[in-house]
TrEMBL record:
<protein>
    <recommendedName>
        <fullName>Peptidase A2 domain-containing protein</fullName>
    </recommendedName>
</protein>
<dbReference type="GO" id="GO:0006508">
    <property type="term" value="P:proteolysis"/>
</dbReference>
<dbReference type="InterPro" id="IPR021109">
    <property type="entry name" value="Peptidase_aspartic_dom_sf"/>
</dbReference>
<dbReference type="GO" id="GO:0004190">
    <property type="term" value="F:aspartic-type endopeptidase activity"/>
</dbReference>
<dbReference type="InterPro" id="IPR001969">
    <property type="entry name" value="Aspartic_peptidase_AS"/>
</dbReference>
Length: 208
């Protein structure tokens, strides 16, 4: 997986003349908001997976180990200009600890972590409270606190490059291809898989 570019603020000094003397004055970091301790991470209570909430990422992504390994024609660009391969969309239903589930189609990509990007936040109207380290749902004022604090994190700034419209139309015609397949409560067929065994079941005593 590609190591994302880390962009943090740099403390600079400037000389200020006061009462005939030069003294050094510290300026605040120019990019303080994307420092080491201001990223918001939210747990999906359904899967236990940790998602980085990144408003600088244009597209929401998950590591491609979740599913297919066949590269798609959509490419993402990291903050340092590196191109990131994608492997198609996958729809997940997230439980972020708020009052409603969130069904979203993520891009499987060559990244090391799952990222909730600006597309997800914009669609569901969620707000990121960086100072209080939480995610806010204005619909009912519910909030969920970041699962991780003071953790170094790279600035992702994932930018999307448009894929072929034929590919998008094909996925719209067959939405079940990219969605999770829950186990149905009842089946529409009478096919059963049976393993016939004879004799008592085998077992072994635990050993230390």
């Amino acid at each position: 997986p590609i190591a994302m570019q880390l962009q943090t603020g740099v403390t600079r000094k400037s000389h200020v003349r006061a009462r005939g003397k030069l003294r050094s004055a510290h300026r605040p970091p120019a990019l303080y908001v994307v420092g080491n301790s201001t990223r918001v991470h939210i747990n999906d209570q359904r899967s236990g997976k940790l998602f980085l909430v990144d408003t600088g990422a244009e597209v929401s992504v998950i590591p491609y180990s979740y599913g297919a390994h066949q590269p798609s024609d959509l490419h993402l660009t990291a903050a340092n200009g590196t191109r990131i391969k994608t492997f198609g969309p996958k729809t997940l239903v997230l439980n972020l600890g708020l009052s409603r589930p969130f069904t979203w189609t993520f891009e499987m990509a060559d990244v090391s972590r799952s990222i909730i990007g600006a597309d997800f936040l914009h669609y569901f109207g969620l707000l990121v409270d960086v100072r209080r380290q939480r995610l806010v749902d204005p619909a009912d004022k519910r909030t969920v606190t970041s699962a991780v604090t003071a953790t170094p994190s790279a600035r992702t700034a994932l930018l999307a490059v448009a894929r072929s419209p034929d590919w998008d139309r094909l996925l719209q015609d067959f939405p079940s291809v990219t969605r999770e397949s829950p186990v149905p409560e009842s089946f529409r067929h009478g096919v059963e898989h049976i393993l016939e065994t004879k004799g008592p079941p085998l077992f072994a005593r635990p050993r230390r």
